[in-house]
Amino acid sequence: MVTGDRSSGYFNEKRETMPQEERRNYLNGKLREIVQYAYNHSRAVREKLEGAKIKPQEIKTIDDLQRLPIITKFDLVEMQKADLPFGGFEGVPLNKMRRIYILPGLIYEPGEWEYGDTRWAEALYACGFRPGDIAQNTFNYQMWPFAFMLDDSLKMLGCTTVPTGVGNAQMQVKIMHQLKVTGYVGTPSFLMNIAERAGTMGFDLRKDFSLRVGFVGAEMLPESLRERLEGDFEMTIRQCYGTVDVGCLGYECIEKQGMHVPDNVIVELVDPDTSKRVPNGSPGEIVATNFNRTFPMIRYGTGDLSLISEEPCPCGRTSIRLMKILGRTDQVTKVRGTFIHPWQTDELMAKYPEVDKYQVVVTRRGYVDEMTFLVELADESVDRAPLKRRLEKDIQEALNVKGEVEFVRRGVIFDKHKKIEDKRRWE
Ligand SMILES: [Zn+2]
Hints:
Blueprint (H helix, E strand, L loop, with lengths): L12 H4 L3 H22 L1 H9 L21 H10 L14 E7 L3 E6 L6 H9 L6 E4 L8 H12 L2 E3 L6 H10 L4 E4 L1 H13 L12 E4 L6 H11 L2 E8 L3 E5 L7 E2 L4 E6 L13 E7 L9 E10 L11 E8 L4 E3 L2 E3 L1 H8 L5 E11 L2 E10 L6 H16 L4 E4 L12 E3 L5
Parallel strand pairs: 3-4, 3-5, 5-6, 6-7, 16-19, 17-18
Antiparallel strand pairs: 1-2, 7-8, 9-13, 10-11, 11-12, 12-13, 14-15, 16-17
Helix pairs in contact: 2-3, 5-6, 7-8, 8-9, 10-11
The protein binds zinc ion.
């Protein structure tokens, strides 16, 4: 039985409603701790500080953070390549890691022995999950950390999790129906997929299902899709924002006026060119500092652009809010919930001497992303069908997302083209 009102209350009332000034002091204390810890235990962080000629004791407040360089995904990848498996970013020895997660591009991420991060739990609570909920977690349990983080967080709330993982919509429909699942966790497009499949199987979404809350993320949530799903299932859907490297950075509450930055993380918006903070109300890159000792991230640049609001929210939470994700500082694109980086597609295509030029085009059919590789051949006489098959197999394996290859005649792809062209619209 589910206990508690879904539309009010807090996971941790004291911390979520504390005055801004008090929160700043708290975060400053946590910051001093993690910087000193990471300096002592993570070689990559120590080198970053030494490179900037900064002693850990000099970082006393959030303002001092601005003196430190930003760590990017590219840094992570390059440092790992040079020094497997973690590039020195780990803050504990290997035998103190519960799992080693694997991100696309064979990037390794250390997992905490005891998952103590409460940020996703706070987000799930704000979404409406309560003790007694049966949650169907459709995020991928294979290699990636995200499904496990949510799994542990649901446990913190007292929910029962059904770890279905991704895919197999027909089976997911039956499980959701037979177990009287009350909470959905996954991408919004996959819930749409489940709804459509349930329709073709003859189910009535309201009568035959017990879904009340949906926690969605990893891809954009168009308002039209939210309204449709909320209406069809008679449920509430809230979205979250974060990355697998730094964890939860934002979540919607019942008011859905932007995304609250959770407890226990520092989020700054910075000018990507100068690494300094932008004035309040201006767009900037989301840069995060977490307090994870296993995998400490001090000033990690997400590459996502947003705006911050410090206005009070009617829900009573006093945290700052990310108002909207405005786009990317680089060409990294998310397709079906997975990041596609230009360096990944370059690496993949470099293995094919037959390919002269290529461009990735991302579009959307209904609520599903589609990725097409336009390819110009170096030699037009090459046998196209087997090459297409090899390329498509490689794309799926290297990027974890299905992509279609389309050969185009020479001259179609301009020299100054964007490597990844995102043609999706989000109304
Ligand atoms: Zn709120």
